[in-house]
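Task card 7
Instruction: Convert sequence to structure tokens.
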Amino acid sequence: MAESLLPGGASTDDAPTPVANVQHDEVAMLKAKIAQLQMLNASLAAAEAPAARRRRRAPKEQSATDSPAPSGYESDESSSASYDDGSDLEREIDSGYFAAYGSFHIHEDMLKDRVRTEAYRDFMYKNKDLFKDKIVLDVGCGTGILSMFAAVSGASKVFAVDASDIIEKAKLNIQENNLQHIISCFKGKAEQVVLPEKVDIIISEWMGYCLLFETMLPSVVLARERWLKPAGKVYPEWATMHIVALSDDDYIKDRINYWQDVYGFKMTAMQENVGREAHVDVMDPETVISAPCRVAEINCTTTTAEALDRVESKFELTIDLKGEMAGKEVPLSMFVVYFDMEFDRAAQNLVGFSTGPLATPTHWKQTVVILKDKTLKVAHGDVIRGNISFCTSRDAFRDLDVRVSYEIVGKTGVLEQINFVST
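Output:
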């Protein structure tokens, strides 16, 4: 008989047998309640109720201060939340988004990102005191890996939620590891799903390229407002965004000169996109020419969906040339934006990770903003001041618009450019 990964290393054979019929009845009632909610959430997902709009607002039928959902439901009307109607375009975007996350390969890539996956595992395994006997909600559970980490770390119940078809694989993965007595799966959007009760902890791997691409954090925030107990926590709790200057003439030439000879044909019209669209790439750490500047700090336990719609900050970078670049003027090629995550600054064992160019590469890579002016040069000690903003795209709410303005103090006036992070 296969051993179960129960907290403390216990097997299913070691589990205590209920000694009173009332305990059997309570377990049966809970299972029936969960099964009923699972059916309800599946119905909501199948009906594709309107998605929350870019500027989400709290549900009317059940606010953050309402009591948990009752055990019985007579109709969808009594259980579903009310939201702003989404446009046909928004529903189409959501449909494609969740379809993509139903595929096998995207989850394989994320699981094989050891920086990402091991950070979640290490935080939970090294801080089991935070999870012992707690009720946990996993938003966007995917294959169920984070839910299983939470169960092994001592959670009494885990609610695994995902709107994509991958939830069916998560159920099988959970059953294969004998954790179905702790983890219950619900198919549906975080904005709409109905749970049996409120939770102590929300875990989620919501981060996209440039942190905010895909606009998943507002969904986590809404789930937090509906289901997290007053003293609860969202993990990871802290996200910080940084900007840094790079000089990489070879990278720029490769991006531009490529279009001069594409299998013997010139395609110079394609070059305009080099400066208009942000790129996602792993950059050479040797090309970094400044210390980073923090441009945003987000507390996932307290932030609001409205605050995430536009994140804006001033920045200042001082050029620091070393090695072969020391004593020279070098091209100012690009700015790179990346993010760091910290799970809980008050935990006994601190765990976090960075997606920056000086850190181990992750599947998020870095977001590269190539400067339109290719003639700018900087020397050691030069100061760059600017402003950067990240806005939910008006055209597609899961996309992110990045706008940058900057000046090299004493050398140039304010230079402005807009870059779009898009699919």
